[in-house]
Design goal:
Helix content: 25-40%
Strand order of the largest sheet: 1-7-6-2-3
CATH architecture of the largest domain: 3-Layer(aba) Sandwich
CATH class of the largest domain: Alpha Beta
Bound molecules: zinc ion
Order of helices and strands: HHEHHEHHEEHEHEHE
Number of domains: 2
CATH topology of the largest domain: Rossmann fold
Shape: globular
Number of helices: 9
Structural class: alpha/beta
Distance between the termini: 34 Å
């Protein structure tokens, strides 16, 4: 962080101090102690929901999906988490994400043995450009950029584009979901060489439906990406 932005943040903190949503102590919106008290996800395989070290998708489960790891911090069912994530979507409460990108960075390093950072690229979950304009800012992009800076891993938000608006996946049947996603995501041809044999980390606040994460992972794999890891704050 630059000196100027540090000073600006300091002033902002003095004017409106961060208060933990749970214990009301200062300096965090969700303090580390309160995060400890919330039920966090234990290691499991996102495909079969059974135990698996480091959130790794079991070898036998990898036959059905295009990703290798889905790392999830906590449960979306928790009302405190739900409120924090909802509030982080407002520009004025953007700083809630500061706590989350730090927790996600740590969680990532705990669950992935990184030998060479150059083998990794961080991206954010693709959002249709029109929605991005309406929403003013994209919290998934802020999370990814901050994690990228913190872990010193390259970030590129242009690798995958969402080229069509889609109906909300959760409201559709399984068949309609697959149809709804046909030709929605596209790889940016400019970066095909850059992603070859790399591990792509996709960061998001809440995990999308299985069909969405599988579709995005599939496109990456079709373009010779070695490994796909999802890193998210919460899931149901
Ligand atoms: Zn607290
Ligand atoms: Zn499994």
């Amino acid at each position: 962080m630059s000196k100027l932005s540090t000073i600006i943040n300091l002033i902002k903190d003095i004017i409106s101090p961060k208060i933990c949503y749970s214990c009301k102590k200062e300096w965090h919106f969700l303090c580390p102690q309160c995060l400890q008290n919330i039920k966090k996800y234990n290691w499991f395989c996102y495909n079969c929901k059974l135990k698996s070290d480091d959130f790794e998708i079991h070898k036998k489960c990898q036959k059905y999906v295009y990703y290798e790891k889905v790392i999830i911090l906590t449960h979306y069912k928790n009302n405190l988490i739900k409120k924090l994530i909802k509030d982080s979507k407002f520009y004025s409460r953007q700083e809630i994400l500061n706590d989350f990108w730090q927790y996600l960075s740590t969680l990532f390093l705990e669950n992935e043995w990184v030998i060479n950072k150059k083998d990794y690229i961080i991206i954010s979950s693709p959002m249709y450009f029109f929605r991005k304009i309406v929403r003013w800012y994209n919290q998934s992009e802020i999370l990814s950029k901050s994690i990228s800076k913190n872990l010193e891993i390259d970030y590129n938000f242009k690798i995958i584009k969402k080229v069509k608006h889609t109906k909300q996946q959760s409201k559709l049947t399984k068949q309609d979901r697959e149809k709804n996603l046909e030709n929605v995501f596209q790889i940016n041809k400019k970066y095909i060489e850059q992603i070859k044999w790399k591990t792509i980390i996709i960061v998001d606040d809440v995990i999308s439906t299985w069909t969405t994460i599988n579709e995005i992972s599939k496109i990456l794999k079709e373009n010779k990406v070695k490994k796909v890891i999802w890193l998210v704050i919460a899931s149901d």
